[in-house]
Amino acid sequence: MGQFTMPPSQPAQLFGAILTITLAPVIVILLACVHHCAPEERKAWSLSGLAFAVLFAAMVSINRYVQLTVIRQGLASGSVDQLQLFLPYGNNSIMLSLEILGWGFFLSLAALCAAMVFNGGGLERWLRALFIAYGLLGLTSALGLVVASPITALGFVAWGPVLDVIAALLGVWFWRRAKAPRSTST
């Protein structure tokens, strides 16, 4: 297993940018599906979560697209001095700040709102707990960047394993809801 280094290698940065641009709309769709399935009395929470997810997706997609185009092309042409503040992992990086704002702040608020949709036992209890864990880890990470603390690294736990488990459990939740008999009103 390779060692985690900062900044990541160029291939790792390229992979991360493409993955983020691909996953951001998927996360919005997942939260749109949560909103669709939410009980009527919890739709304000699910809609709020969806709104924050849209802000997240816009923020990180713009950030990563700029990294893939302007930053990479500028570096290739030798414009390093002009791009210092925009390098994704440089000191005082505007791009890193935007990335943490998306993943650590907006998606954390989306997760905390989505957590309020799940009030049952079993699977819903797990989803609620994991959404809350994501939210708290992500907000701690965002705060860590504000105060220049290494606690920002906690975000990687939220953005990786916690988000992966949430996505898998949401898949199970959607599948169970699709299989459940639908009530008909007369």
Q: In brief, what are we looking at here?
A:
By secondary structure, this protein is an all-alpha fold. Helix content is 74%, strand content 0%. The chain has 6 helices and no strands.
Based on CA atoms alone, the radius of gyration comes out at 18 Å
Helical fraction equals over 70%
Q: Unreliable stretches, pLDDT < 50, 5 or more residues?
A: none
Number of strands: 0
Count of discrete alpha- or pi-helical segments spanning 4 or more residues: 6
The largest sheet, given as strand count, sense and whether it forms a barrel, is: none
Query: Which class of secondary structure composition applies to the elements?
Result: mainly alpha
Q: Which term fits the overall shape?
A: elongated
Beta-sheet strand percentage? under 5%
Mean pLDDT: 91
Straight-line N-to-C gap: 60 Å
Q: Sketch the topology as an H/E string, one letter per element.
A: HHHHHH
Question: Please, could you describe this protein's structure?
Answer:
The protein is mainly alpha-helical and 186 residues long. It has helices spanning 10-37, 43-76, 80-83, 94-115, 123-146, 155-179. The relative contact order is 0.11.
Keywords:
mainly alpha; elongated
How would you summarize the topology of this molecule?
Elements: H1 10-37, H2 43-76, H3 80-83, H4 94-115, H5 123-146, H6 155-179
